[in-house]
Amino acid sequence: MADACEPWLATLRNSGIDISEVKIEGHASSEWRVGSLPREAYLRNLDLSQRRSQAVLRSCLDLVTDQEVLDWARKHLIAVGYSSVRPIMGPNGQEDKTASRRVVFSAAPNRQSLLAEIESEATIARYDRSLFGGWADLDGDCQDTRGELLQTLSTVNVLFADNNCTVTSGKWKDPYTGKTFTSARDVEVDHLVPLKWAWDQGAHSWTAEKRADFVNDAANLLVVDGYVNREKGAKGPTDWLPPSKGFQCQYVTQFQRVVLKYGLELSEERQTGLINIEKQVCK
Fold it and tell me: Looking at the 3D structure of the chain, how many domains does it have?
């Protein structure tokens, strides 16, 4: 026990899991003295199992030298005696009385925290693109956000379809690849911070209005090569960078501006990853 008690408690403490209790269980067999009635045997073994678990708890605490681990253990460690209610059964279906006399260590997570985490993960898992809505026509001129952006970023006057609403051609330089396109069919309007990526970092809790704003925010939109956009998918800078190295620094810094603007909730690991990528590409 000297080699196991403190390392085990330290591992639990540093696991990142919200531990509700660490239990030392004392167990006994169903027998007592020869001729003892079942009630007496049960009560005597209850006392024995409780004393057994408490003795182990005291010994465990005595073996802990790290004060922080010891303080944590005092808040979580409990000793419980189960008498003979959880016997070990042998292959023949009969109680193995020797194996039943034992001490068991167990740890239980905080159920409320666990349920809240499961509920949160379930909500995140239900991502659906339609929850962000579509392109908006904010000025009512029949040209939605995509059409407006194609006009704004084209280096020549764009041409429209017969309905004067749909852009068919122009001239766009894709910042991801450096390629130039003239047909609107060959380009896509990409969300720099992908919708699924944003969803996983907190957008799942946004109002419908905020998600619609995010979808149509020009600060988060680029006209790019459709093939490369599909390759990028829902990845962020730690998993994908534009093929054009000359745009990588701007991509990462602009990505972080959008994250900051919308208050997306990044884990410490993800935040560190973004910082490290920025250091690599913004030399």
Answer: 2
